[in-house]
Amino acid sequence: MAYKVKLEVFEGPLDLLLHLINRLEIDIYDIPMAELTNQYIEHIHTMRVLQLDELSEYLVLAATLIEIKSKMLLPVHEEDGLDEHQDFEYEEDPREELVARLMEYKKYKEAANQLKESADERAIHFTKMPEDLSHYGEVAAPPPDEQLNVFDLIGAFQKMLQRKRLRVPLTASITKAELSVDEKMDDIVAILKKKGGTCYFDELFVEGDLTDLVVSFLSLLELMKRMDVLVWQNENFQQLTISFGQEGS
Amino acid sequence: MNEDEVMHGRIESLLFVAGDDGLAPEQIAAIIDSTKANAETLLDQLQERYENRQDAGITLRKYGGRYRLVTKGEFAGDITKMLENPSPKSMTQASMEVLAIIAYKQPVTRVEIDDLRGVKSEGPLQTLVAKGFIMEKGRLEGSGRPILYGTTELFLDRFGLESIDGLPPLTEVEEGEQEDTDLFMTKFQEAFNMQEDEGGIID
Amino acid sequence: MNEDEVMHGRIESLLFVAGDDGLAPEQIAAIIDSTKANAETLLDQLQERYENRQDAGITLRKYGGRYRLVTKGEFAGDITKMLENPSPKSMTQASMEVLAIIAYKQPVTRVEIDDLRGVKSEGPLQTLVAKGFIMEKGRLEGSGRPILYGTTELFLDRFGLESIDGLPPLTEVEEGEQEDTDLFMTKFQEAFNMQEDEGGIID
After folding, report:
1. Which of A8, A14, A58, B86 keeps 20 to 30 A from B118, CA to CA?
2. Which helix (H) or strand (E) holds B59?
3. Of the spans A173-182, B92-101, C36-45, C183-192, which averages the highest pLDDT?
4. Maximum CA pair distance of chain A?
5. Are A172 and B194 in contact (CB under 8 A)?
6. d(CA C70, CA C66)
7. For chain C, what is the mean pLDDT?
8. What is the mean pLDDT of chain A?
9. Which of A37-51, A183-197, B3-17, C127-141 has the lowest mean pLDDT?
10. Chains contacting C with at least 3 CB pairs below 8 Å?
């Protein structure tokens, strides 16, 4: 099992190759192609057993490796007095492109780690929500002419979600008491109607703070007691489903 | 003294993040591992500092048993000016949030938006209607018949969308929500047990 | 000096109100009726004060061209305690790689990213869009007119960068830099452990 996880952590064929190069303590600028190719193929063989989704991409690189290996086996020029190794230093090395790709990939892989560190540093600084300025006056707002950005919308949404995470109740003693059970019962009926008469239990408890959730639950209990709604489940451990009772519309 | 200074810093950071919600002295005491009385002494000292320091734009107020940071009264004029000098982005985070919720969840009621944001959204909604980005799309059947909001043609135009289906998916968000739900349910369980002990029900 | 102190107070109150939105120096200049350069000087002074004052729980940071108040790093523990928030799910290695490529090479197409990584990046791209870290920055002229991706303001904020130029330079790997590789493997191991903690690989 641990082995499997270790294989899954490779982010692609180049990542696997970098790993092998490091593990075999190979000089990346003088890769022994035969050895590396064998190791690589051995690895993807194991991965094939695991039905890796991106197997095809791994195979493409395997083909490249084999191609490079065979190119290196071919005598390029028969010049007297030079052994094969030296030969490659003057001729174009078939490994060159692969090495360049690996180095380029490695650069960004390291940049990713640096970025992660920056994100971690940023994450320890908390901020607050903008103050509600509506009581200072209306923001005069003619339709803006400039093109706005959908991605700003997503950004805003994500910021909100983050804040929501921060708004997890400070302590259990807080009672906002904004919603009564009666009001919440109406809300639940409204949700049910909107969802066409049936909804999952969880859908009633997606939003709100702790108090809201407690009130929602009590409201649901009350509705069940009155037989306004039914709560049922198809099988054990399945989601609870809420629907209108006989009295409901 | 030095020790106290650090405590003031700690408390300031807590109050800052708590924002509008503020904090009860008991909560502060629990976090800084001290007594309520000590927390209150520190809060009093902190308030005195804010009042005496000319370079402080904020001060400490106690409303309904909870302490919160607020801006000093003398800067109200500047804050009003902020409204006249909107951000170059031209829409506030609040408006963008509300617009995002409506765009992705439409048709949606104000109560749903408030719930999701954890804060009242009356102001941003008015702004968005005034800007012509959202409109009433009917009313929900049921108690109160609340207004359902949806986006307008102008919204599509200004945001360069062919149709509302052209919005990029928020798949990751759904996952996050699910996690939140799990967390909430754990909390809920705790609270429920607690309430049973107290023998009461929140109303 | 006294004059400056009052200015610091004014600016603090503005930044407090703006919260997460932050303020651009131009906005502050407009509100306090001064020049951008002067506003920036005052902001620098303010930041220095925050950093030097032990009793300050907050400080000033500039992310993506906008100044905002944030809590000091040393109080993160207290705040986490207060919020009882689970730390946000960290991103997968795949998403981080794609994000790094986009950050440094933007604008860039999916095909370029795929080529560089030697693996399809569709999933991570969608995640990054949904998280609000990347956006479409137009399309490449030519066959198929592929989408060009770039980073967003939110990316700068969440990664603590003043601007995209603030990215650390890419390290060119020197020949025979074994140490570097070791470091890389350490990181790799860390990332691997982290993912194990998450209990699986998300795509």
Report:
1. B86
2. strand B58-63
3. C36-45
4. 100
5. yes
6. 12
7. 84
8. 75
9. A37-51
10. A, B
What's the pLDDT at A229? 82
CA-based nearest residue in chain C for residue B94: C21
**A114-133 burial: b if 16+ Cβ within 10 Å, else e:** bbbebbeebbbbbbbbbbbb
| The three-state (H, E, C) secondary structure of chain A, written as one string | CHHHHHHHCCCCHHHHHHHHHHHCCCCHHHCCHHHHHHHHHHHHHHHHHCCCCCHHHHHHHHHHHHHHHHHHHCCCCCCCCCCHHHHHHHCCCCCHHHHHHHHHHHHHHHHHHHHHHHHHHHHCCCCCCCCCCHHHCCCCCCCCCCCCCHHHHHHHHHHHHHHHHHCCCCCCCCCCCCCCHHHHHHHHHHHHHHCCCEEEHHHHHCCCCHHHHHHHHHHHHHHHHCCCEEEECCCCCCCCEEEECCCCC
Contact by Cβ (8 Å): C171, A110: yes
For residue A147, the chain B residue with the least C-alpha distance is: B158
Do C10 and B58 make contact, defined as CB atoms within 8 angstroms?
Answer: no
The two tokens of residue B68 are: 């919160």
C-alpha A82/C-alpha A85 separation (Å) is 8
- The pLDDT, as a whole number, for residue C203 is 39
The model's pLDDT over B82-115, given as tens digits with 9 standing for 90+, comes to: 877 766 556 777 888 899 999 999 999 999 998 8
C-beta atoms of A173 and B26 within 8 A: yes
Q: E strands within C152-191?
A: none
CA-wise closest residue to A22 among A115, A102, A108, A104? A102
For residue B193, pLDDT beyond 90? no
C-alpha span between A247 and A228 (Å, rounded): 6
pTM above 0.90, yes or no: no
Q: Which residue from B76, B128, C21 is spatially nearest to A136, judged by alpha carbons?
A: B76
The confidence score (pLDDT) of residue B178 equals 40
Burial class (CB in 10 A: 0-12, 13-18, 19+), C39: buried
